[in-house]
């Protein structure tokens, strides 16, 4: 190794260049001897690693240059490193819609996480008995409110583990447990209501007052007076029309399960208080609920 | 190799995989199918199987929350005169009649 290390690559490059040039001449003649091509792969060097190094396979002049791993420019530059202009500090401002639906994954737009005492500040879950008096629409919406609350809890849990916050995990678990209780009660209520409907339908088929295959009203009270049959008796006609108006007024109601019907006194849930004698609104309501 | 009893006990603490059990075990991802495989390797989506989530309208104005205040104890319903309590079909039918036989 007589040549110093700085000169060695230069020699190798020169040899490589001449070899490439001679190779080009030979390839124009379409004669490629195997031995010379094998030799041309590696520039001559007495150092084993350099001798076995493969040459660049393409003419890419930017090969090995990277702005990511700070390779630096390949050639010596005229200006010092400190004189190189800095890249602009460009940070695009992200437009955020304050009314976006994804904000529902957080409790607040300013405070993305609840404090543990705020987290623990919640009530108990709904009981089945309380949900029995809710309409389908209310239960449906309550279910989705629970789903959103679950999402918020899951987001908080994820965020807390990401920020490696140790506090608040138990409070979150308790909160989630109450939400799960409510959801379980909703499912219980709806299942029970469905089975109840099936049983009541069977019961109604045996009921003489109920005609389920009727086109109009399936329910005809036993003390119902048809106004067409009793035209001669005006008081009875009025009574019959009153009943019919009640039926019509009930038909206009959107939620027959929640809103108490006209025969019911206001403020008392009809489910807990089914009066046996339907067509006598004067009868005192039993205070059951 | 047949693991010993003690090894098996330790082994069962791991989640069950398809390699742990005999042929035919389908573990799945608890997601259910959305269609069927064809014999050519494709997949036909059955739109009746694809989940549809119906979000009710009016969630913004909805007042109820998943929680009830702890100051109010859980209410107990009174179902006097009904043998099965809230599960008695007579209750349902009477209420239906009380609401003029709608629905």
Automatic annotation (TrEMBL), chain A:
User: Any idea what this protein is called?
Assistant: Large ribosomal subunit protein uL29m
Pfam families hit by this protein: MRP-L47
- Keywords recorded for this protein, A-Z: Mitochondrion, Ribonucleoprotein, Ribosomal protein
**GO CC annotation:** mitochondrial large ribosomal subunit
Record carries keyword Glycosyltransferase = no
Where is the protein found, in the record's own terms?
A: Mitochondrion
The UniProt entry, under InterPro entries, shows: MRP-L47_sf (IPR038340), Ribosomal_uL29_mit (IPR010729)
| Transmembrane region(s) | none
Biased composition range(s): Polar residues? 40-49
One Gene Ontology term of the molecular function aspect = structural constituent of ribosome
Q: Name one GO biological process term.
A: mitochondrial translation
Q: What are the start and end residues of every segment in region (Disordered)? A: 40-59, 234-289
Question: What's the domain of life for this entry?
Answer: Eukaryota
Q: What family is it from?
A: Belongs to the universal ribosomal protein uL29 family.
TrEMBL record, chain B:
Query: According to its UniProt record, where is this protein located?
Result: Mitochondrion
One cellular component term from this protein's GO annotations in UniProt: mitochondrial large ribosomal subunit
Q: Which GO terms describe its biological process?
A: translation
Q: Which InterPro entries match?
A: Ribosomal_mL41 (IPR019189)
One GO molecular function term of this record is: structural constituent of ribosome
Keywords of this entry: Mitochondrion, Ribonucleoprotein, Ribosomal protein, Transit peptide
- Family named by the database record: Belongs to the mitochondrion-specific ribosomal protein mL41 family.
Name of the protein in its database record: Uu.00g128400.m01.CDS01
Query: What organism does this protein naturally occur in?
Result: Anthostomella pinea
Record lineage: Eukaryota, Fungi, Dikarya, Ascomycota, Pezizomycotina
């Amino acid at each position: 190794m007589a040549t110093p290390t700085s000169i060695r690559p230069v020699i190798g490059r020169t040899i490589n260049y001449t070899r490439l040039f001679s190779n080009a001449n030979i390839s124009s003649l379409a004669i490629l001897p195997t031995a010379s091509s094998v030799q041309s792969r590696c520039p001559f060097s007495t150092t084993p690693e350099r001798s076995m190094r493969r040459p660049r396979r393409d003419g890419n002049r930017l090969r090995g240059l990277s702005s990511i791993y700070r390779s630096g420019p390949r050639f010596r530059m005229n200006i010092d490193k400190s004189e190189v202009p800095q890249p602009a500090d460009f940070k695009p401002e992200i437009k955020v819609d304050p009314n976006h639906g994804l904000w529902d994954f957080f409790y607040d737009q300013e405070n993305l996480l609840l404090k543990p005492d705020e987290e623990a500040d919640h009530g108990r879950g709904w009981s089945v008995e309380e949900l029995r008096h809710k309409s389908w629409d209310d239960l449906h919406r309550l279910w989705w409110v629970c789903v959103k609350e679950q999402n918020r809890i899951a987001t908080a849990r994820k965020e807390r583990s990401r920020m490696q916050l140790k506090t608040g995990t138990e409070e979150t678990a308790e909160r989630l447990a109450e939400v799960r209780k409510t959801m379980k009660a909703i499912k219980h209520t709806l299942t029970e209501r469905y089975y109840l409907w099936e049983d009541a339908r069977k019961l109604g088929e045996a009921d003489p007052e109920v005609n389920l295959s009727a086109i109009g009203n399936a329910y005809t009270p036993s003390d119902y007076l048809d106004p067409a049959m009793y035209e001669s008796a005006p008081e009875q006609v009025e009574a019959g029309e009153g009943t019919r108006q009640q039926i019509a007024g009930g038909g206009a109601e959107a939620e027959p399960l929640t809103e108490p019907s006209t025969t019911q006194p206001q403020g008392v849930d009809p489910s807990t208080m089914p009066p046996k004698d339907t067509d006598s609104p004067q009868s005192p309501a039993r205070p059951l609920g | 190799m047949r693991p010993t009893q003690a090894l098996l006990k330790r082994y069962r603490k791991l989640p069950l995989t398809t390699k742990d059990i005999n042929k035919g075990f389908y573990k799945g991802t608890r997601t259910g199918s959305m269609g069927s495989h064809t014999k050519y390797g494709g997949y036909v989506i059955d739109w009746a199987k694809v989940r549809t989530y119906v979000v009710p309208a009016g969630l913004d104005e909805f007042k109820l929350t998943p929680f009830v205040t702890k100051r109010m104890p859980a209410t107990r319903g009174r179902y006097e005169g009904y043998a099965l309590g809230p599960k008695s079909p007579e209750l349902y039918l009477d209420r239906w009649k009380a609401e003029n036989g709608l629905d």
